[in-house]
Amino acid sequence: MVNQLNIQSIQHLEIILKISERCNINCDYCYVFNKGNPAANNSPARLSDRNINDLAEFLHTACREYKIGTLQIDFHGGEPLLMKKENFAKMCERLLTGRYSKTNIRFALQTNGTLIDEEWISLFEKYSVNASISIDGPKHINDRHRLDTKGRSTYEATVRGLRILQHAHKQGRIPSAPGVLCVANAQANGAEIYRHFVDELKVYGFDFLVPDDCYHDTNIDPVGISRFLNEALDEWFKDSNPNIFVRLFQTHLAHLLGTKHQGILGHSPSATGAYAFTVGSDGFIRVDDTLRATSDRIFNPIGHVSEISLTDALNSPQFQEYASVGQALPHECNGCIWENVCAGGRIMNRFSPETRFDRKSVYCYSMRSFLSRAAAHLLNMGIKEERIMTAIGR
């Protein structure tokens, strides 16, 4: 459990802000629209000015309550670029003119890239927005799951948006090179996806996401996901290029080496000093956004940002349970050699309607295989076995 009395400073506070709860494409695996929870469709299509003002006041109060190192606001959806540009600019202005004391405020945005144009680049430049693109690989793989609402390819439009972002970064107009988020695909070749990102798209910072599946989903293929991750991991080690950052790989390798790292919110037991909440277009605050796919009570609204404080959110039953679940191993995981590294896997992947979060991940095999492969690579590099065993607590 999180003892609120012991929290005086927060290294990293992240707000996943649903500025648009509609989308112009229809990814069949989408946890927002295609996992059975109607919350997004029942919410306002866009974040209102009133809810933006209420959020700004909520954040001002949070920065008075705590010493917050970095406040990161992730503009999210649906597809966030469905918000009108003039409204996006007003939102950024309002959020940036806040009373945040010495807190560093950072804007990020996750987009499918299809709507990016020069006007959006100008806005990203003006407000220092770090944009990342969702794409699953080359056209024949990306378009298996990421089609538009009329069943047409999204690949070309997404790559066009990525190229515009890359060009803007080379010009020094936006703060960081665009990264890529890719959902691991059990029917695809991980090496092919990795090479497409690095060699063809010239992307050197990306992440592979384990699918947002749990025990009420069908067609789960942990063997295929493990093969995908291991194929991509092999290519990454083969490149041995320190300029290529794959978050999933480097976070877990840091664990295996016993080095300090922040970890991944919602995935890593060592993401200490970091907290994340979701704020919907309706202005209500909730925990980890992916948990909406469970339709479980843990994703029930904590309260409206105009009516509660960050202290209230941290002390809420939903967040307290979320923190407790994240710190407790499912009983099936006790004694596993990887328990201190994996920590039971993503909370989303552990859910079943009967036992809720007391199950090992549906992708347990995938992560055990991946971690074994990663450890083998380290041994081949000359890392002492004793160091790895000490790091994993064995």
Automatic annotation (TrEMBL):
PROSITE patterns: MOAA_NIFB_PQQE (PS01305), RADICAL_SAM (PS51918). Pfam families: Radical_SAM (PF04055). Residues 9-268 form the Radical SAM core domain. It comes from Yersinia thracica. SUPFAM superfamilies: Radical SAM enzymes. The keyword Transmembrane does not apply. Gene3D superfamilies: Aldolase class I. The keyword DNA repair does not apply. Transmembrane segments: none annotated. GO terms for molecular function: 4 iron, 4 sulfur cluster binding; metal ion binding; oxidoreductase activity. This is Galns arylsulfatase regulator (Fe-S oxidoreductase). Its EC number is 1.8.98.-. Its cofactor is [4Fe-4S] cluster. It is an enzyme of class 1 (oxidoreductase).
